[in-house]
Write a structure and sequence with these properties.
Elements lengths: L2 H11 L8 H7 L5 E3 H8 L5 H13 L3 E5 L12 E5 L31
Antiparallel strand pairs: 1-3, 2-3
């Protein structure tokens, strides 16, 4: 057995097992655009603590969700009733896919001319 094979075997022993929350979260979030942190913690049956929220945050970032603050996630949310949650990113990249080649953002009308100036 070579040295590299021994190192790979040793590294396998120290790999962390997969988080047991990941699978239920993946299944529950199929087709969902946004969900509150409280609802996700209730889904996995965890208490609402900072440690559990940080553990959830690591999983949600791996699932490509982004953190948000919203009134819409809380039933009856109005003005100062803001809750934290997670949402899928709307745009995949900085460049919009609706533009055509060579087209720039902005208005396409000519600049206005003053009367009497020719």
């Amino acid at each position: 057995m070579s040295f590299l094979e021994k190192m790979r075997d040793a590294a396998k022993q120290f790999e962390a097992p997969p988080d047991p929350w990941r699978k239920p979260l993946e299944n529950a979030l199929k087709g969902v655009d946004a969900m509150s942190t409280v609802a996700l913690l209730d889904l996995v049956g965890a208490r609402r603590t900072t440690q559990n929220a940080r553990r959830l945050a690591a999983i949600m970032r791996d699932l490509t969700f982004i953190p948000i603050q919203s009134r819409r996630l809380m039933p009856g949310g109005f003005r100062d009733t803001v809750t934290r949650g997670w949402a899928r990113p709307i745009r995949g990249s900085a460049q919009s896919s609706t533009r055509y080649k060579g087209e720039t953002a902005g208005w396409d009308r000519p600049s206005p001319t003053r009367e009497g100036s020719t």
